[in-house]
Amino acid sequence: INFDGTAKGSLGLAVVGGIIRNDAGKMEAAHAEAIGNKSNNYVEAYAMLIGLKWVNTLHIKKLYVEGDSQYIINVMN
């Protein structure tokens, strides 16, 4: 999965999104939504959580997770 989130300012209007790709790198599904006023770290974590729940629903067992928030990636590792 690839995930991302952004918030306007430190606690502003936030949007999250993500995509699921297959082994060949072809996009299989995508999702985006506005989630109200949130912090940047919350938005990045929420975007990843949505992606992981989505993968679980689809019964995908092996995956790579990619995002641009070093903080969230470090927390997960």
From TrEMBL:
<dbReference type="GO" id="GO:0003676">
    <property type="term" value="F:nucleic acid binding"/>
</dbReference>
<dbReference type="InterPro" id="IPR044730">
    <property type="entry name" value="RNase_H-like_dom_plant"/>
</dbReference>
<dbReference type="InterPro" id="IPR036397">
    <property type="entry name" value="RNaseH_sf"/>
</dbReference>
<dbReference type="InterPro" id="IPR053151">
    <property type="entry name" value="RNase_H-like"/>
</dbReference>
<dbReference type="GO" id="GO:0004523">
    <property type="term" value="F:RNA-DNA hybrid ribonuclease activity"/>
</dbReference>
<protein>
    <recommendedName>
        <fullName>RNase H type-1 domain-containing protein</fullName>
    </recommendedName>
</protein>
<dbReference type="InterPro" id="IPR012337">
    <property type="entry name" value="RNaseH-like_sf"/>
</dbReference>
<dbReference type="InterPro" id="IPR002156">
    <property type="entry name" value="RNaseH_domain"/>
</dbReference>
<feature type="domain" description="RNase H type-1">
    <location>
        <begin position="1"/>
        <end position="77"/>
    </location>
</feature>
<dbReference type="Pfam" id="PF13456">
    <property type="entry name" value="RVT_3"/>
</dbReference>
